[in-house]
Fold FAD synthase.
Amino acid sequence: MEINEAVRGCSDRRMRTKYANAVYVVQRAFALYPFEEVAFSFNGGKDSTVLLHLIRAGYYLYKKDSGDVAEMDAVKNCPLRTIYFESPCAFPEINSFTYETVSTYGLPLETIHSDFKSGLEGLLKEKPTKAIFIGTRIGDPNAVGQEQFSPSSPGWPPFMRVNPILDWSYRDVWSFLLTCKVKYCSLYDQGYTSIGSIHDTVPNALLSDSSTEKIFRPAYMLTDGRLERAGRTKKTNQNIEMNSVASNGTASIEGEQMISRAASIIIVGDEILFGTTEDKVGAALCKKLHAIGWRVSHVAVVRNEIDSVSEEVERCKSMDDMVFIFGGLGPLHSDVSLAGVAKAFGVRLAPDEEFEDYLSQLMGNNYTGDRNEMALLPEGITELLNHKKLPLPLIKCRNVITLAATNADELDTEWDCLLDTQESGLVQAKPFVSKHLGTTLTDVQIAPVLAKLCLEFSDVYIGCHRISRAGPLVVNLTGKDNQRVEAAAEKLMSSFEGQFSQVDSCK
C-alpha cells in the first residue's frame, strides 16, 4: 500500500513513530467496531486529509493482518461512511477538494447541512454509528481532556470519538502530507495555515513574502506550528490587550514604584524533605525578588508527586502575581513539575515543536523513548522565554515560571535573562530598603515598643530573629520609602538609648 511504503521508507524516525501509533489506533477501532457502524468526519482540511490516508493504510493493514487477503486491491481505498458538514460559509476550494477527494477514493458520502450536534443526532437516529474518526489534534480548542478513544461529551449523541492524530503537531501533519505526496486543498499553498469560514480566515501574515503584492508562501513553510491559527481573524479587545502589555512593561516605573507585587516560590524535591540536601536556590531567589521590589509571600517545599505539585501551584497561582517553581524538571520518573503545573491549570501535556527543536540541538538523539518526552509542555498556556545566554528557553505558563537552575550560579544567569526578557512579566518596581538593628535586650523588654512602632509605621515591615537563643536579637525594618524606614529605626533606637547598633543583614 503506497502510504505505508512511503512512511516506512522515509528517514524521519519521528514520522515513522507517529504513523505507527496512529495506524495502530485505526486498526484497533476496526477490531472493536463493525465496519458498517464506523464513520469518518471529513472537512477537506489538512488534518482530516491526513486522517483519511491513515484510515486507508490502517484498514489495509487490518485486513492483511486478519488474513483476509481476498480482493486486497478493493480495500485499499477503505470505502468508509464519510460525513461532510457542508456550510454556506465554507471556502469554494474546500468544497471542491472535498467532493473531488470523495470521488477519487470512492467514499460513500453523507452530506449534512445543519450544525454538528444536530447533524449527528439525525445521523445516529437514521444509521447505527458506534464510532467516528475525527482529526482532532492537540492545540485544537476542543482537544482538552480528550484521549485517542473518547466517548462523546455529556448532552451529545452517544458515540466513541476516535482520535488517531491527537498527539500530532503541525509539523507532523505536513511531514506526513509531503512524505506521502498526497493531494491537499490548494488554499494551503496560498498561505492559509488553519482554515475556518470565509468570514474569519485569512492567509497567515507570517508567511507573507511581500507587503505590496500580497504573496504568501505555502503553509508547510511556517516554522512555528503554534502560530498556525494566526490567520484566524477573530476580533479581540485591543484596549485590553494594550493595557495588559503596558502593565507588564517597564516604561512607567514611577507609577509602579510603590506597588508591592507578590511572588511564591515552590521547590520540588524529596531530597530536601529527607534532609539529604539543603536548598540554597530558594533563598537566593528571595533576595533577587526583594531587590526588584517584589514581596515573597510564600515558600514551599513539596514532594516529587504530581498531585503535591498541582495542589501547591493551584493555591499559589491565584494568590500571587507570579509563581516560581524549580526542581523536578527533566526526563526522570521523579521529574513531575510540568505535569503538576498542567494539572493545576486543567490542561494536558502536549508536544511543543519549538522546545523540541531546542532539545534536539542541545541533546541530539540522546533522549528516552521514540519521541522526546521532555518536549511535552502544558497545552495552550505555555510561553517559551528565549534568551541568547540560555541553552534552553525558560517555560512560562500564565503566571507560573519554571526555572531550570540547580545552584545559585545558574540562578544568576537565568534571573538576568528573565529581567532582560519583557515577556517574563517581571516588572522592576522600586526596590525595598532595609535596616537591621541588633540588641542584647530581651524580647520582653522591647515587645511593647515594637507593637506601638508597628501601628505608627504600618508601611514598614518590622520583624525579628535571633542567630541563637543566647545571642543578640536582630530587628529588621523593611519598606519602599527610605525616609520612613530611617524614621522607624530612629524611633526604636531613641526608645532604648545606646542599646541598639546597626548590623549586617546576614547576622
Q: What stands out?
A: The two ends are 76 Å apart (CA to CA).
